[in-house]
Design goal:
12% strand; 3-stranded antiparallel beta sheet; single chain; 3 domains; alpha+beta; 393 residues; globular
């Protein structure tokens, strides 16, 4: 992919781990810019800045794929099917000239594109005298085909410009959605940590049984689901989930999900600043640090349980993110009668921390696809439980 981003000759595809492309030999040029996806911290970077484990987003207009998958020599624009791949009751639909053409006939497209352009012009102008609510309503009235396609009721649709200060499109949304990037795990009501863990453990059991896994793996998946968020017991993370209120965090029950308004990004940012959590800090590796011998005594494969807990948001394959923690804290939480305590400077991100060795040993034990399959089941269980919590909101 790096050679593709550098517009260089594509290396032969093979099974050799870490084979270098032409760009690595030439060392010339930074390559095309892509979006480095990190949730709220996403930013545009050059191809030279991409690191292993990064999630990057490239424009569909660049090509690189065909109907069969990866095709770096293709210059044909890739059909954007993000909306068609959505799951769950929450729906997000981008309204942008580049994607409207997929859904609308020419006449409908022209009306919608004109309304969109008028609305965005008003949004960009802080001194506009145009009524934004009226412009939103006019735009929605040009999109009945889109609303019907995605099962969106007009009265329940919310509209928000994107991205940044000079938006070039809008997002229509209904309901709330679950993502792996939302480290604050916000809902409009709080969810207790033990309730969330029990729910994820239940879903792990359900999914693994339906998939026909052997009993030992079912039990280990259930255990991993039951402990995957223990790291949220870090005092700073609790302050974050309590909206930055340290007194409330000390006096209240341990939370897995916040009761803050998910649309109030300023309040979320302020809560994080008051919490003292280092930027980029990951609760899942704190969860791993809290897994003591008593908790893992019932595991058939303790290494697998530790690993699944650590990668349940997609990090740690094979390196956990390195985050400076100048004021490490001690987290303490009880799990099924066992007291678990650990410091936040656990060292799992260190090259000698043993995590990369754990990654490779489990790949040899379960196979590349087998280990990824087990990871996916826990992640899906976590998402299913979180969606339940949203639906009950």
């Amino acid at each position: 992919m790096l050679a593709w981003l550098h517009r260089e000759e594509q290396p032969a595809v093979g099974d050799i781990e870490g084979a270098a492309g032409a760009h690595a030999k030439s060392g010339q040029g930074a390559g095309r810019r892509v979006l480095h996806w990190r949730g709220e911290d996403s930013a545009a970077i050059t191809a030279r800045e991409i690191r292993p484990g990064d999630t990057v987003v490239a424009p569909a207009a660049w090509g690189g794929c065909d109907r069969y998958g990866w095709h770096p020599d293709s210059r044909t624009a890739v059909v954007d099917i993000a909306e068609d791949c959505q799951q769950g009751r929450a729906v997000r639909v981008r309204i942008h000239p580049a994607v409207l053409g997929y859904w609308l006939a020419e006449e409908e497209y022209q009306r919608a594109e004109a309304c969109l352009r008028t609305y965005l012009t008003a949004v960009r102008d802080p001194e506009t005298e145009m009524d934004l609510e009226e412009l939103q309503e006019a735009l929605l009235q040009t999109l009945p085909t889109v609303l019907t396609r995605f099962g969106m009721e007009p009265r329940r649709v919310r509209l928000a410009p994107y991205p940044g200060e000079r938006p070039n499109g809008v997002v229509l949304s209904t309901g709330a959605s679950v993502t792996d990037e939302d480290d604050t795990s916000v809902l409009t009501r709080p969810v207790a940590l033990d309730v969330h863990l029990d729910g994820v453990s239940h879903w792990c059991g359900h999914l693994t049984r339906q998939c026909g896994l052997p009993p030992m793996l079912i039990e280990d998946e259930r255990l991993a689901g039951g402990v995957h968020d223990l790291g949220k017991a870090d005092p700073r993370f609790q302050i974050l989930l309590y909206g930055g209120d340290e007194v409330a965090a000390i006096a209240g029950d341990l939370l897995a999900k916040s009761g803050m308004n998910p649309a109030n990004r300023m309040a979320l940012r302020q809560a994080r600043e008051r919490s003292g959590l280092p930027r980029g800090w990951r609760h899942e590796f704190m969860s791993v640090a809290l897994l003591n011998a008593a908790v893992l005594a019932g595991a058939h494969d303790p290494d697998l349980v530790r690993y699944l807990v650590g990668v349940h948001h997609g990090r740690g394959r094979p390196f956990p993110p390195a985050v400076a923690d100048p004021d490490p804290q001690v987290a303490s939480v009880e799990y099924q009668g066992h007291l678990c305590e650990a410091r936040s400077d656990h060292g799992l991100e260190r090259l000698d921390g043993g995590w990369a060795e754990l990654f490779w040993s489990l790949n040899r034990r379960y196979g590349y696809w087998g280990l990824a399959y087990l990871e996916a089941l826990l992640r899906l269980a976590d998402r299913a439980r979180s969606q339940e919590e949203i639906d009950r909101d």
